[in-house]
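Page 47, continued from p. 46.
Same chain as before, 202 aa.
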Amino acid sequence: MSRASSVVILVILAGVGLGATYLVQHASAPRIAAEQRQIDSRNLLDLLPTDSYDNQPLEQPLTLENSALANSTLLGGYRATKAGQPSAVLLRSQTLGYAGAIDLLIAIDANGKLLGVKTLKQSETPGLGARIADWPNTWLQVFAGKSRTEPADNGWALKKDQGQFDQIAGATITSRAVINAIHDALRYFDEHRQQLIGSSPP
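Result:
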């Protein structure tokens, strides 16, 4: 076999291989995307009681346009509904911790009560502030059931700052940042309830 023939055969085989690879990737892309959506859904929606919604909240994003708040920034959010009625919102919040940005997911029910908080991203000190990313998180669970007015504004602080909350041991700055971001989100919910869930305060 001549060298030219060998080159032609190699080129043909390479083309067939590339084509087959493309077809396999193209065929599996929808399945991969669906699996990624399921992973995202589990990661983001495990703050909501499973019987509290019957829609796909991640397919009902809220337009918040990076709202800058007193101590944090809202990056976006999602609305959960049941039988067509809003049951909760999930707000993505970013605040500045000790070592950098902390991204939180904050779930609030239709009455303005906090359902839960989860850390999505952080770069805090390992063994100290980084414990904010543990899941489930005992420290973050303390905030469930709180609202903008329960406790009152001055209660939304660390005990060492005359507030109501303990800190993560050795992580004062991280703890302050997260408390302030949660309070910001609850305040935003109260002030934008009509936009978020389409109803006025009860």
